[in-house]
Amino acid sequence: MTLRELILSVDADRYADNLLYQELLKVKPEYGSNRRIEVKMLNGNIVVTNAHVGSLGDIITYRIVVATELKISNSQLLDAILKEMSSDGFTDVEETNFLTEMTNLQKAKIVR
What we know:
Layout: H1 3-9, H2 19-26, E1 36-42, E2 45-49, H3 56-59, E3 63-66, H4 74-85, H5 92-102, H6 105-111
Parallel strand pairs: 1-3
Antiparallel strand pairs: 1-2
């Protein structure tokens, strides 16, 4: 499943106040990618890796690989990924800056 498919599979009302979720829901996929977001359990914590963002349009195309021993719901999985993408939470200013930067497709193309 891709991040986009995961986003579409959860109850949108639960994430009504989450701006990152709202932006991910609206963004159009940019380039297909063979990159993967990896999710596993380490020392009793859910660990998400490879969730660093070039652009939101890119990351929603990433496949999600969950360790076979990890049994979590789609909502728990999305919560962990959103937490990792937001560096464990944004201030209001940081969130605005992040979303402005990550929706600037011209900048993302230059970075690529």
